[in-house]
Amino acid sequence: MNPMCKSPVIFIAALWICAAQDGPEKIYGLKEPKSTPPSVIKKVEPNSVGGVGTVVLGIVISTSGEPEDIRVLSPVNPRMEEEAIRTVMKWRFRPGAIDGKPVAMRASIEVNFVRAGPDGSAFAKQEKFRGMHNLALAYRSGNGRDKDPKGAFELLLEVAGKGYAPSQAAVAEMYANGEGVDRDDKLAIEWARKAAAQYNPQAQLLIGGLLAAGRGAPRDPAAAAGWYLKAAQRGQKAAQVNLGFAYLDGTGVEKDERKAAHWFYKAADQGLPIAQYALGTLYAGGTGVNQDLVQALKWMRLAVGGGYAAASKPVDQLEKTMSPAQIRDAEKQIAAFKPASWR
Predict the structure, then answer these.
(1) pLDDT over threshold 80, residue 291
(2) Burial class (CB in 10 A: 0-12, 13-18, 19+), 82
(3) CB contact at 8 A, 23 and 261
(4) What CA–CA distance (Å, rounded) separates 40 from 92?
């Protein structure tokens, strides 16, 4: 098993290079030539959460017809956004295809809320909780206010007690980090599970990290990978890269270098430097992908540009093995790269 590089909240393994297969699953747009768009085959309606309106979600529909990488494209209010995501997670699709072959495709989905809550007050309550949560984050970070981790924790705990998932996740993180409160891994998991029950990806990531390290509960790599998968499917890039390392090493899952490349790509495409370096290294060694030095240089250089200094020396070594034409090709691709815009 590879050694792990641990932070208080995110646990990222070190790279280990093995042997080669095909590349990560490519994600297509809806306007590809000779393409058939995905279609809904199972749909459920959202529960009423006290607001009326439409939440637009960006998703990737996998080749198995399951929604992945769910992101909010049109913010409305947190309660409606969370319910919209919970709802679409239950949908199933006939996957899109190109020349009759199923492929992963990006799409946008509208989730309509047409009924108000029974007393009409749920929306106002959620807006109040959101305001308190944002105020607590300002005290936590010192952004625009005097930094006060203890005060931030107390305010977040108050809002978390009312069932607001983002605050529950933040409380869990602060317990895990000993930030503004004594460290307590068991309470961290307890609060993270409350938020994860509402499909909060940050909480899902945190549970995975704690279980991977044996903090607050016995070490359980398989359960950790399961939580990483839940968060990764919601587009949480740190969870995606952690899941990639799990598949690369066979930690908690069956070793699968192609799946490792798949999840590294998803995080790298969002601009995460460690994932870009990992993906570049796979391309350089032909691990889980066909060897491609141009792609290797592209992703490694993007990692360096994103502040991942450890990639600098491998980039220099890689360039010595490449032709000027290959380097120019990589530079063109780097100039054209834009991280996935979904937030």
Answers:
(1) yes
(2) buried
(3) yes
(4) 6
Q: Are 284 and 296 in contact (CB under 8 A)?
A: yes
Q: Which residues contact 113 (CB under 8 A, 6 or more apart)?
A: 46, 48, 49, 51, 52, 53, 54, 55, 80, 83, 84
Please tell me the distance from the alpha carbon of residue 15 to that of residue 71, in angstroms, as a whole number.
28
The pTM score is: 0.74
Q: What is the pLDDT of residues 174-185, one digit of tens each?
A: 999 999 999 999
Tell me how far the alpha carbon of residue 205 is from its chain's centroid. Answer: 8
- Alpha carbons 114 and 110: distance in angstroms, whole number: 12
Residue 100 Rama label (left phi>0; alpha psi -120 to 50; beta): left
Can you say whether the dihedral through the CA atoms of 204, 238, 5, 294 is positive or negative? positive
**Helical axes 201-213 vs 165-177, angle rounded to 10°:** 30
